[in-house]
């Protein structure tokens, strides 16, 4: 009964290297380290939901078995990002003698949230306890980690997962949970998740609450996303100079799907790239979209900015023809 209430993203998290998908270059190197029973300091860099935390947990399980928590400390640096977490929590754990093994592992998730002072302290700690402690740092942006730490680690770069990898995993989960996952439903999840397998699994679980049939309509409803063709239709209509019609389509996106202004612009960005217009025009429109996105992020009224964006699109062709 307890297993049934575990979130699917944890329930179906890979526990061995053989279960990992889409990061073959990382798996090959990690497999070698585990075979040698030795490990350097590691830095995992890449987008969210691509397997960084999972690989760290797989390493711990392989080295220490199911009781890996005795020699494995996991911290989320975005929660505790100051120098005190290094001076106290990390140092205290690093000082403790490893339990029936040669070294312990400290896993710092979202380490790019650490302050500069904390990173400088961590740099020294990594040197002092390197014989008994290995560090694994997980980051979205490796550029936010100071160079002295980067030079002390082996850097692995994780890439967004290919659609075929996510598709296969979703089909396996759907079969296990006795769901009827339709092709349109898979394609919708792939569109929304953008290579993030964690997001894909969470969307699948959320959509399953509406029923056993997982289709496009259910996915977009639960994910609060519009269909790509609806966003593309709004942009095309505006570019044809039909401002009122485009504004009506915008209202539908905002009220039917509950999208925020930034959500609309993010989807517009993806669909603008696929519009059949001249590349020079596309570049100008993307530059314009970036400007409106900046205004919304800075606190401008979403509704006014989105309507203004459509108004500009409606007059865009006329301006270009005059030039």
Keywords:
alpha/beta, 57% helix, 323 residues, two-stranded parallel sheet, Rossmann fold, globular, Helicase, Ruva Protein, domain 3, Zinc Finger, Delta Prime, domain 3, 15 helices, 3 domains
Q: What name is given to the CATH topology of the largest domain?
A: Rossmann fold
Task: Let me know the number of strands.
Answer: 7
> Which architecture of the largest domain would the CATH scheme give at its second level?
3-Layer(aba) Sandwich
Computed Rg? 24 Å
Largest sheet: 5 strands, parallel
Using the coordinates above, name the CATH class of the largest domain: Alpha Beta
Shape: globular
Strand order of the largest sheet: 2-3-4-1-5
Structure overview:
By secondary structure, the chain is an alpha/beta fold. It has 3 domains: 2-157, P-loop containing nucleotide triphosphate hydrolases (Rossmann fold), CATH 3.40.50.300; 163-223, Orthogonal Bundle (Helicase, Ruva Protein, domain 3); 228-322, Zinc Finger, Delta Prime, domain 3, CATH 1.20.272.10. It is built from 15 helices and 7 strands. The chain has helices spanning 8-11, 24-36, 52-64, 83-95, 116-128, 147-151, 163-176, 183-193, 197-208, 216-223, 228-239, 243-256, 261-272, 279-297, 302-322, and strands spanning 42-45, 72-76, 104-109, 133-139, 154-157, 180-181, 213-214. The protein has a 5-stranded parallel beta sheet with strand order 2-3-4-1-5, sandwiched between helices. Strand 3, helix 5 and strand 4 form a beta-alpha-beta unit. Helix 13 packs parallel to helix 15. The chain is globular. The mean pLDDT is 87.
């Amino acid at each position: 009964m307890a297993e049934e209430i575990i979130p699917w993203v944890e329930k179906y998290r890979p526990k061995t290297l053989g279960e990992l998908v889409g990061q073959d270059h990382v798996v090959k190197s990690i497999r070698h380290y585990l075979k040698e029973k030795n490990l350097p300091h590691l830095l995992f860099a890449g987008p969210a939901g691509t397997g960084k935390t999972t690989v760290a947990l797989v390493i711990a399980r392989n080295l220490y078995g199911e009781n890996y928590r005795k020699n494995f400390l996991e911290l989320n640096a975005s929660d505790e990002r100051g120098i005190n977490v290094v001076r106290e929590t990390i140092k205290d754990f690093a000082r403790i003698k490893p339990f029936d093994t040669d070294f312990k592992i400290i896993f710092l998730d979202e380490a790019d949230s650490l302050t500069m002072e904390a990173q400088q302290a961590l740099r020294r700690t990594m040197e002092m306890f390197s014989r008994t402690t290995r560090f694994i740092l997980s980051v979205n942006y490796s550029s936010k980690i100071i160079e002295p730490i980067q030079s002390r680690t082996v850097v692995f770069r994780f890439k967004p997962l290919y659609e075929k990898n996510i598709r296969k995993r979703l089909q396996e989960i759907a079969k296990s949970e006795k769901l009827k996952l339709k092709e349109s439903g898979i394609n919708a999840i792939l569109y929304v998740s953008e290579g993030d397998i964690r997001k894909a699994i969470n969307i699948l679980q959320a959509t399953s609450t509406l029923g056993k049939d997982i289709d496009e309509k259910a996915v977009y409803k639960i994910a609060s996303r519009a269909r790509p063709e609806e966003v593309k239709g709004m942009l095309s209509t505006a570019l044809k100079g039909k401002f009122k019609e485009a504004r009506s389509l915008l209202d539908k996106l905002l009220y039917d799907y509950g999208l925020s202004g930034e959500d609309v612009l993010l989807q517009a960005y993806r669909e603008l790239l696929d519009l059949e217009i001249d590349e020079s025009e596309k570049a100008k429109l993307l530059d314009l979209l970036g400007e409106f996105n900046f205004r919304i992020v800075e606190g401008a009224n979403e509704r006014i900015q989105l309507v203004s964006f459509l108004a500009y699109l409606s007059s865009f062709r006329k301006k270009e023809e005059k030039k």
